[in-house]
Amino acid sequence: MSTLTQPTASNAIRSQFLRNLYGRSGILGSLLALQVIGIALSFSGGNGFGTSDGQITINVVDYSANPVIGLTLLWALISPLYLSSRDSLQTDFTFPGNRMTRHCGNALYLAALVLTASLVVTLVQMASVLFTLIPGRPLLLPDGGTGHYVSLFAVLTGYCLVLSAASYFAGTLFSVSRIAVFSLFALVLVFLRVTAVNELVSALFRFAGDGPPSMILLRCLLLTAFFFLGAIVAGSRQEVKA
Length: 242
Description:
The protein is mostly helical. Helices cover 73% and strands 6% of the residues. The protein is built from nine helices and two strands; from the N terminus they run H-H-E-E-H-H-H-H-H-H-H. The chain has helices spanning 9-23, 25-44, 66-78, 80-83, 86-92, 99-130, 146-176, 178-209, 213-235; strands at 46-53, 56-62. The protein has a two-stranded antiparallel ribbon with strand order 1-2. A hairpin with a 2-residue loop joins strand 1 and strand 2. The protein is globular.
């Protein structure tokens, strides 16, 4: 005698998270590949300049994690498009779950990757600066000490979460109806004008970028929740083909 057990929402979310972790290694692999490239660029230094006065020559090289930050932000913008696609939805629904648990599992997966990526960037920033100690060159450390790296981690985490959530929402909306997306975009351009759209985007950046790092992270979390809720609402219209 056998019985059927209805999976709970928490189990379905956990299964979705693990499915993404083990079954979609390309998303994690792309993050690692981009960050390895960024690390190589960071350790090579950038924005160098030199000056000389008589027999004294001064060469200054700026070691920072800027290349890793840029590539990580690029990953946060592109990778969620795969998770929100119709093909991803079709695969996910071969397992127990529903649209709500699917979106929650995807959100947790992206959040875990973002936290990992931000931690790597922070460690690279520390390593790229201390890298100059090996040949015994004079070293100027960033102002703020430990607080500088904590701020970097908090702000980068917030920005990556916002980009991931916005990209996930856009991908979900696009998978529901391409015509609706283009029509909505056209209406925005017609009724709000391009300048108004630019002002709106600038206002969002000011909202997320002003103030201390803790407030920036909090605002980014609010924007992230807004975009993911939008994805959940839009995703309720996604169709699964037999």
